[in-house]
Amino acid sequence: MDDRWLLDFLDYIRSEKGLSPHTIEAYARDIRSFSSSLPLKDWKQVIPDHIFAFISQLKGKNYASSTICRMLIAVKVFFRFLKKEGEISVDLSRYFETPKLWQLIPEVLSMEEVEMLLAQPNPSDPIGARDRAILELLYATGIRVSELCALRLIDLSDPFVKVKGKGKKERLVPVGKKAIEAVDHYLLHFRGEAKEENSPLFISSRGKRIDRITVYNRVKTYARLAGIAKSISPHTLRHSFATHLLENGADLRLIQDMLGHADIGTTDRYTHVTDSRLKAAFNAFHPRP
Q1: Residue 72 lies in a domain
Q2: At which of 95, 119, 141 does a domain end?
Q3: Quick count: other Cβ atoms within 10 Å of Cβ 195?
Q4: Cα–Cα separations (whole angstroms), residue 110 to 64, 113, 188, 282
């Protein structure tokens, strides 16, 4: 089987989903195990019967139910990715019932950690100015890293950014003053060449549209420079955005709209109630706080 798609998938879950290195290694191992069981050369040729046969093989080898479930989840997520990328026309994962996917909650940064992270890029050089703008925009809007990479110059208009999310659905997300200032600084001082409206908002040192792996690596670098011990990714800024809005009393449905979630249940699972909000609720409503 073509290993290129597996490598692309691992890059995707590393940068977009914020999964831990251990989880990513497990996904890689499980999908390679499935791939080795196939008498095929192309992922387009896989049918549900191949997955059923794989599960039967695992049962015949006396794998634990929990292990089989984990391996099936890895295969399901991989085929969802292939469908999303247009490699296959039918999402085979719909044929198999398993626990909900992507339920891992990544690390959340405190406000102090966010400030330390945002302070790391040097705005006096092109890469630093670009990276400061990227970090500010990720935290200010909660957009996905893939959505950020796809932004064009025309998409940012004070005080909103037009985002094309999943299913090519567009939404307007408000942008704070500091993020706008960081982007303006980057464009004014380091993108002075003639720019068409459809040009990428963020570009690499080679003048190409920036990719999600570059953003992932830059976030990791600045977290290390800031002395942040948590394992974070661009996805962490998205989750921190939602969590901090909740902490400050924002309505869950407004957060749902900004995150681009079709289902309020997704937002409800994605965010969580922090200790400070629990304590505040206790003090406000318990008769003997």
Answers
A1: yes
A2: 95
A3: 13
A4: 39, 5, 31, 22
Q: Which residue has the tokens 């634990």?
A: 64
Assess whether pLDDT exceeds 90 at residue 265.
no
Q: What pTM, to 2 d.p., does this model score?
A: 0.64
- Which of 63, 95, 127 is the endpoint of a domain? 95
**One domain for residues 127 and 69:** no
Q: How far is CA 51 from CA 61, 70, 107, 131, in A?
A: 16, 14, 33, 43
Contacts of 134 (CB under 8 A, 6+ apart): 148, 202, 210, 215, 218
What confidence tier does 264 reach under pLDDT thresholds 50, 70, 90? low
Residues written for the chain: 289
**Residue 269 neighbours by CB distance under 10 Å:** 14
* Distance between CA atoms of residues 109 and 243, nearest Å: 9
The answer to whether residues 89 and 164 belong to one domain is no
The predicted model gives 74-102 an average pLDDT of 77
Q: How many domains in the chain? A: 2
How far apart, in Å, are the Cα atoms of 119 and each of 113, 133, 176, 182, 263?
10, 11, 17, 12, 35
Closest CA to 261 of 276, 241, 278: 241
For residue 164, give the H/E element and its range. Answer: strand 160-164
Please report, for residues 23, 87, 98, 237, the alpha-carbon distance to residue 139 in angstroms, rounded to integers and kept in the order given. 25, 32, 32, 5
Same domain? 251 vs 125: yes
Structural domain boundaries enclosing 225:
111-278
Least confident of 139-143, 149-153, 193-197: 193-197
Alpha helices by DSSP H, listed for 142-230, are 145-149, 177-190, 212-225
At residue 234's C-alpha, the angle toward residues 239 and 248, to 5°, is: 30
88 and 171 in a single domain? The answer is no
Give the residue numbers annotated as catalytic, written as ranges.
144, 166, 235, 238, 261, 270
